[in-house]
Amino acid sequence: MGKKRAPGPKVTELITTEQLAEEATWQHKLRAAAFNGISEQDVTEIVQNAVQRAKEGDPKAVNFVMKMLGADRPITVNNHLYVDGEKRDPKPTEAVPGSEEKLEEMRRRVTNGERVFDGRDRIGYEGVER
Questions:
Q1: CA distances from 37 to 33, 43, 77 (A)
Q2: What single-letter DSSP state applies at residue 83?
Q3: Which of 3, 13, 79, 96 is deepest in the core (most CB within 10 A)?
Q4: pLDDT tens figures, 4-48
C-alpha cells in the first residue's frame, strides 16, 4: 500500500482562501501538538544523546549538533579577514576609497556581519580636492 497523504488540498490543485485557512489551522494544530508533546527534559536528553554520538564520530550527529549551535555555515578567508559565510548586504557608501571614513565604514561592516565590499560603493575620486 502507498503512504497516506496528510489531509488538505493536493499541491497541483488551485487553493481557495477557505482551503488555505483550513490548511494553516491544520498545520498550526500539528505544530502545537508536537510542541506540547515534547518537554524541556526530552529536548535536553535528545541533545545530550546527539552530542555523545557526535563525540563517537557519527557524522549525522556532528552535523545536527553543529546546526543546533549555528556553526554549520561555511567560513571563508578574504585578505586575511575571517568572514562568516552568510552576509547581509551593506548600505552603499559615498566615502572616498582609502579615506578614514571609508576604512571606518569597512570596520563597521565587519563588526555587523555585513559584506565588507559592495559594488554600489563609490569607487572613484571625482569631486575630491587634492
A1: 6, 11, 43
A2: E
A3: 96
A4: 655 555 556 666 777 777 777 888 888 888 888 888 899 899 999
